[in-house]
Amino acid sequence: MRVYTGSTRNAGLAACALTIGNFDGVHLGHQNMLARLRAEASARGLPTALLTFEPHPREFFSRDDPPSRLSTLRDKLDFLAEQKLVDAVFVYRFNGAFARMTAQDFVDRILVGALNTRYLLIGDDFQFGAKRQGNFELLASCPSFVTEAMPSVLVAGERASSTLVRERLAAGDLAAAERLLGRHYQLSGRVMHGKKLGRSLGFPTANVHLPHRRPALEGVFVVEVDTPEGRFGGVASLGKNPTVDHGDEYKLEVHLFDFAGDLYGRRLKVRFLKKLRDEARFEHLDALVEQIERDAAGARSYLTSWQREQA
């Protein structure tokens, strides 16, 4: 999979079959759309391409109160590449100039002029351009490419959407989120230096950097973690750690079972398997340690049963 950021003049694609969207989380609805795009592209002898945006337009328009992000750009691109879902991804910077671009300019300058689109597949609710004035009818009237709309994908009777995944994660329903995603929910990031309080309490933690201000879920979780040293089970806290911190910054702190080593600066992939509880504030550290011990015991018990089921 090739990835292009910024200018696409040297992309090297003579023509393409394209879809457009943020594809946050790359859930089953997105995966079905890319499968259909692949089938239509093959019938036309075209490579497949995805046009996506960074930052998410809703983050741009709601800078003071941005929505939660399901996946970083890196995680999204990694999954698309690992699953071989698309041949090329074009990442366009969403800024003020892009937001002011009219729908017709978007068609003429981006879809036709820059990307040489011959086939376009969009979601059934897709709108674009300044003030969201562009729609299916405008795209279908363009003679340079064929436009088709993808109907909604239903999972267990519900429309698969990034919004629904966020709602399920916020509610702590990881099983429902997994059904919509087709896999366990995952976050990745590099291990940063922290206060090292966990080590002094007997539970050393890896503090994983979160690139976005608001995660999609909060609480204490059973996790499975991919590290440069292998895969480990563990327990993770994702929240503001109110017992020892008084700020508004979210932190992902992961205690790995049966691991000894230095992970500073290394990248971890954290898969969330089950929510144990909501975050809580404790009056003193002894009470916190007792709760961490209960969390760790519960996580170990769950992992033993879960791994037995996977075998």
UniProtKB/TrEMBL annotation:
Q: Key word Translocase present in the record?
A: no
Q: What residues does the Riboflavin kinase domain cover?
A: 180-304
Question: Which catalytic reaction applies to this protein?
Answer: riboflavin + ATP = FMN + ADP + H(+); FMN + ATP + H(+) = FAD + diphosphate
Q: What is its EC number?
A: 2.7.1.26, 2.7.7.2
GO terms of molecular function: FMN adenylyltransferase activity; riboflavin kinase activity
Task: Could you list this entry's UniProt keywords, alphabetically sorted.
Answer: ATP-binding, FAD, Flavoprotein, FMN, Kinase, Multifunctional enzyme, Nucleotide-binding, Nucleotidyltransferase, Transferase
One Pfam family this sequence matches = Flavokinase
Going by the record, the broad EC class of this enzyme is transferase
What pathway is it annotated to? Answer: Cofactor biosynthesis; FAD biosynthesis; FAD from FMN: step 1/1; Cofactor biosynthesis; FMN biosynthesis; FMN from riboflavin (ATP route): step 1/1
- Family to which the UniProt record says this protein belongs: Belongs to the ribF family.
| UniProt cross-references to PANTHER family, sorted A to Z | RIBOFLAVIN KINASE, RIBOFLAVIN KINASE/FMN ADENYLYLTRANSFERASE
What is the role of the protein in this entry?
Answer: Catalyzes the phosphorylation of riboflavin to FMN followed by the adenylation of FMN to FAD.
Q: What is this protein called?
A: Riboflavin biosynthesis protein
Organism of origin is: Crenobacter cavernae
